[in-house]
Design a protein that fits this description.
18 strands, 4-stranded antiparallel β-sheet, alpha/beta, 6-stranded mixed β-sheet, 33% helix, 489 residues, single chain
Length: 489
């Protein structure tokens, strides 16, 4: 069978390799070389942990737990192969800490701990944390804010960009997978087509409207000379990321090859100014030393969020021969070693327990969507449009901007910069007033209160709910990707 795959990320490349190993002829299309510069998987670190609670309704449950345990086993093998072939590690089993403000863990953390404790692989790898242990791991300031929780020593992180490169190399060795970038409008035919284009997937498949949506998460990096017990690599980079509702944008509405070239200030490397302030405030309470350093670079990590946080790996309804693998929702990368076979089974029409139980195509009822929304934390609701935000400038990245208070006094909405007094002649003023009167008369059925609330929601700074619980790598530095954020994109 000849298969075309659109997208060379955490879904596309494993699927290409799995299908190729099964004897199919596979062609991979992407807008950019592997790893794509603006893809979510092109990063220095991604957490790899099997802690998934017990609620299967909203991106959790034993299905994900068991799948991740198998993925970690394969990550260990991939790491050995990468070291042998290139001398580079791609997986670091350093442990992941789940830190909380109070001894009372939330339901997700309790379920994760108890479920993993019952497994043969993890029953001896979990340890309850108290303040002195947290201080030894992450420093006394962090421990003062988050003195409780647990650590999973059988988890860690992967050098995600290097993992993608490794998978691309494995696929190329099969002699059938070719990564290309095309804008010539030529048609390429196949027996099956798989769309796995990450955050661009909903713009390619209109059937996903309302089921999956792009969401940009701000990420910051520091270059550090030395910090607590974190081991340093040659690049000495430390990454901080925030999981929440993120930002939406028209950035993904075009799938042309030129889509990666910024026509506005919104690019994959720019983040909103308000997110810089959010990070600085957080660091001031848990890692105050870091606020003496300038931010070295930033990026937007683009999720493709599904409505319930679960992946969509299935045939597209009523479109024979078309398949989709998307909806990573910020937690798909860790399954890269095992997801390819699941996708290949779907393309081949074979039964697969994960496809049937978690990843099948689904359109929620109003009641189902409401129930999932009730499980989300407040900071996971209500993404903001990037087009109304002011993006951070070079001075915002400096430590001095926060310490002197400059950062907190600056505008956060793009509209603030556009407020100006317009000089009009009397005729223009009359025509303008006439237009306003007619416009208001035509729209008098609109609820003024709702419009005001919507406008206010867009300018509200991130709340502090994220401070109640935090997941933190006990080793979160890699030497992958020493970018200069001032380099034109």
């Amino acid at each position: 069978m000849k298969v075309i795959i659109v997208g060379s990320g955490a879904f596309g490349l494993p699927a290409a390799l799995a299908l190729s190993l099964r004897g199919h002829k596979v062609t991979v299309f992407d807008r950019l070389p592997v790893p794509a510069d603006d893809s979510a998987s092109n990063d220095i670190t991604k957490v790899v942990r099997p802690d998934y609670g017990a609620d299967a309704l909203y991106m959790g449950g034993k299905g994900y737990q068991d799948l991740c345990i198998e993925a970690i086993k394969r990550f260990r093998d991939l790491d050995k192969a990468s070291v042998a072939q290139t001398g580079r590690k791609i997986y670091y089993e350093c442990g992941v800490a789940f830190a909380t403000k109070t001894p009372q863990w939330n339901q997700y953390e309790r379920d994760s701990f108890e479920s993993l404790k019952s497994t043969a692989e993890y029953k001896n790898l979990l340890e309850v944390l108290e303040e002195s242990k947290v201080a030894r791991l992450l420093g006394k300031e962090f421990a003062a804010q988050f003195p409780n929780g647990y650590i999973n020593r059988g988890a860690g992180y992967a050098d995600s960009a290097q993992t993608v490169v490794h998978y691309a190399d494995l696929a190329k060795k099969q002699g059938r997978v070719v990564g290309i970038k095309t804008a010539d409008k030529k048609s390429h035919f196949a027996d099956a087509i798989l769309i796995a284009a990450g955050s661009w997937t909903p713009s390619i498949l209109p059937e996903l409207k309302g089921l999956c949506e792009p969401a940009g998460m701000p990420v910051i990096h520091f270059k550090i000379p030395g910090f607590y017990g974190f081991p340093l690599t040659t690049s000495s980079e430390l990454k901080f990321a925030f999981h929440g509702a993120g930002y939406n944008s028209t950035f993904h509405e075009t799938t042309k090859a030129t889509a990666a070239k910024p026509v506005t200030k919104i690019t994959p490397r720019d983040i909103p100014r308000e997110s810089i302030l959010m990070y600085r405030k957080f660091l001031s309470t848990v890692f105050p030393e870091l606020n003496n350093l300038d931010i070295s670079r930033t990026r937007l990590c683009w999720y493709c969020d599904s409505w319930d946080g679960n992946f969509y790996i299935d045939a597209v309804p009523q479109r024979n021969g078309l398949f989709v693998a998307t909806g990573g929702s910020g937690h798909a990368f860790k399954f890269m070693p095992v997801i390819g076979d699941i996708i290949a089974d779907v393309v081949e029409g074979k039964k697969n327990e994960y496809h049937q139980s978690i990843f099948k195509w689904r359109v929620p009822t109003k009641e189902e969507r409401s129930k999932v929304d009730s499980l989300k934390m407040e900071y996971e609701k209500g993404s903001k449009p990037l087009e109304v935000m002011v993006m951070a400038d070079p001075d915002d990245f400096t430590a001095a901007a926060f310490k002197t208070g400059r950062l907190g006094k600056r505008d956060y909405r793009a509209q603030e910069k556009r407020r100006q007094i317009i000089k009009l002649n009397p005729n223009t003023i009359f025509l303008l007033l006439l237009f306003v009167f007619r416009h208001c008369h035509r729209n008098n059925e609109l609820n003024n209160h709702q419009r005001t609330n919507t406008f206010q929601r867009d300018v509200t700074l991130p709340n502090d709910d994220y401070r109640n619980h935090i997941w933190f790598h006990t080793q979160d530095i890699s030497d992958r990707l020493n970018w200069d954020r001032n380099t034109p994109y």
